[in-house]
Amino acid sequence: MALPVWFQRIESAAIAVLVVVAFVRLDFAWWWLIAVFLLWDVSMVGYLASPRVGAISYNVGHSYLGPAALLALTWLAAGDARWPIFVALTWAFHIAVDRLLGYGLKFTDRFTHTHLGEVGKKH
């Protein structure tokens, strides 16, 4: 496995750990991270249309921009709502674990072609 891929995997592990710590510090039950983990994979539904549509929908659902924007908007609104923080943290946790396992952002030709390499191939 190439050195940059290892760096991204280590970075993903760090993000996952930070999310767990934040989740617990905010008094959310840690098991929610596991319970809702697969819900974020609904973004793969685009693959029913085509690899291109699937890659776009998957990448939108698996980019840190989404949870970061949700956290930023929540912070800027200075409201008391905890649900956006819950959603953003579970979302970021899913992305981090996916990337740690080698499921990177998708290219438009096929599901297995990611920015971290081919899914399922030994490196």
Automatic annotation (TrEMBL):
Q: Which domain of life is it from?
A: Bacteria
Presence of keyword Cell wall biogenesis/degradation: no
**What are the entry keywords?**
Membrane, Transmembrane, Transmembrane helix
Query: Which residue ranges does UniProt annotate as crossing the membrane?
Result: 7-24, 30-49, 56-77, 83-101
Q: Does the keyword Membrane apply?
A: yes
Q: What is this protein identified as?
A: DUF4260 domain-containing protein
What is the organism field in this record?
Ornithinimicrobium cryptoxanthini
Q: Show the taxonomic lineage.
A: Bacteria, Bacillati, Actinomycetota, Actinomycetes, Micrococcales
